[in-house]
């Protein structure tokens, strides 16, 4: 599945698993990720999960009309935007890294090509 990790001074401070209901960020206790930061709205943003035509899960960051906005890789999102593995999500002054285990598996997959030598295969970095 997927998760979001919060780094503080380069160290993982928190890890939040994203279940099938998604994940909600904000300043109040109704959120799964409670952020004590005045730059964060009471209900700031949420991650929604959708399935595409091939039943692949897609994770969407949606801003909930927050005062200061939500950012992916330092780009302010309008209303919602697709998250990709290793995207940096900023809520207020807090950074979170999006981790998608399914995309990690694809990153590790290499394309193998057949050599002109029988029985020999190779891959390029």
TrEMBL record:
A Pfam short name = FHA
Name the domain of life: Bacteria
Q: Which SMART domains match?
A: FHA
UniProt cross-references to CDD domains, sorted A to Z:
FHA (cd00060)
Locate the coiled-coil region(s) and give their ranges: none
Q: Which residues form the FHA domain?
A: 23-77
Q: What is the name of the protein in this document?
A: FHA domain-containing protein
> Taxonomic lineage per UniProt?
Bacteria, Pseudomonadati, Pseudomonadota, Gammaproteobacteria, sulfur-oxidizing symbionts
């Amino acid at each position: 599945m997927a998760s979001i990790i919060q780094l503080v001074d380069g160290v993982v401070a928190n890890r939040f698993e994203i279940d099938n209901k998604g994940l909600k960020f904000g300043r109040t206790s109704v959120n799964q990720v409670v952020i004590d930061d005045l730059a964060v709205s009471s209900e700031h943003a949420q991650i929604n999960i959708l399935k595409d035509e091939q039943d692949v899960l897609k994770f969407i960051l949606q801003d909930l009309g927050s005062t200061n906005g939500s950012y992916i890789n330092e780009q302010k999102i309008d209303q919602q935007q697709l998250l990709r593995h290793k995207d940096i999500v900023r809520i207020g002054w807090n950074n979170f890294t999006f981790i998608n285990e399914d995309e990690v598996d694809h990153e590790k997959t290499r394309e193998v090509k057949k050599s002109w030598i029988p029985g020999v295969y190779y891959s390029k970095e």
